[in-house]
Each structure stands twice: as structure tokens, then as C-alpha cells.
Design brief:
This protein has about 170 residues and is an all-alpha fold. About 70% of the residues lie in helices and about 0% in strands.
């Protein structure tokens, strides 16, 4: 059911994936986070502006890391061989674990306090529940179409053996 993550943990070929993942995360969550902060949390225009301005460096700093995290979890759960329902649950789980603390930091940097902060967090969790799979699909689209990268985890064993970034010793 699961793959030993140690089989390829030392060999995560990035070759542009970090740039693609960062671009995808920044574009997706700037838009989706802004919608949540405006319509659900009720941030004022000024708070929304500061939250989004604070979000961009945070999303840039975490975009590539999220991509690596996502790839490792997907490989460990044999993601590609799962049904659509299970793929959705996997994407939701890995997104919740990674994105909820990041979103709390974004709201805090944007000046949300008390009730506004907690409404934003509740809305953020709901947004993540409904947007995790579309975000994952957006990341894959950006990788394949915009950055023209190959999907290296379709066969982790084969790609780990042939990766030029992998130390074969």
C-alpha cells in the first residue's frame, strides 16, 4: 500500500520543479486566499491588501518546499495508482498539514485579530478542503504545460535510478 520514502528521499530531482511549484502556489493561493479573506473573513480592503502583500513572500518561501512535500507524500501513498476519490483525500490531507500553519501566518501578518482571524482560519480550512485537489491539478498543469517538466514520480524507482541529480553511491 505504501512505498518506503527512504527509497528516494535522497534523490528528489528538482530541475525546475521549484520554480514551477512556486509559481503555481503563488498564483493559485493569491487568488483563492484573497477570495476567502474578502468574502468569508470580512477583511477590509486595507487588511486584504496587507494580507496579500504578506502572503506573496511567504508563498514564495514555501512554494518549492510544498512541491517537495507533495511529491514525497504522493510517492509514499502510490498516488498515481489510486482512485480519484482517494487522490482527492490524499491532496486534502497533505494540503491541510502544510497550508494551515502557513495561512495562519499570512493572516497574522495581514493584521487579522480575534474573531476576524478565527473566521479567516475557519474559512481557510474550508477553502483548503475544496481547493486542495484543484491546486494539485494546477501545480501539475504548470509543471507540464508552462514549465514543460516531466512528471518524475510516475515511476519513482526508474526515475531515481536515471536522475542526474541522484548520487548512485
Amino acid at each position: 500500500m505504501f512505498v518506503d520514502v527512504g527509497d528516494f528521499r535522497h534523490c528528489v530531482p528538482r530541475n525546475g520543479h521549484g520554480y514551477a511549484d512556486t509559481f503555481a502556489v503563488v498564483t493559485f493561493y493569491t487568488f483563492v486566499g484573497g477570495l476567502n479573506e474578502f468574502f468569508v473573513a470580512g477583511l477590509t480592503a486595507n487588511e486584504l491588501l496587507w494580507a496579500r502583500l504578506a502572503a506573496i513572500p511567504i508563498l514564495i518561501a514555501t512554494g518549492a518546499i510544498y512541491g517537495v512535500w507533495r511529491d514525497i507524500v504522493r510517492a509514499a501513498t502510490l498516488f498515481e495508482s489510486r482512485s480519484q476519490a482517494v487522490k482527492t483525500l490524499i491532496e486534502i490531507g497533505l494540503c491541510l498539514v502544510f497550508r494551515v500553519p502557513v495561512y495562519a501566518l499570512i493572516l497574522e501578518c495581514g493584521g487579522a485579530e480575534g474573531d476576524v482571524f478565527w473566521r479567516g482560519m475557519a474559512g481557510g480550512v474550508l477553502v483548503i478542503l475544496f481547493s486542495a485537489r484543484p491546486c494539485g491539478m494546477w501545480i501539475e498543469y504548470v509543471r507540464r504545460t508552462i514549465f514543460r517538466l516531466r512528471q518524475w514520480l510516475e515511476d519513482p524507482g526508474r526515475n531515481a535510478r536515471t536522475s542526474s541529480n541522484c548520487d548512485h553511491s
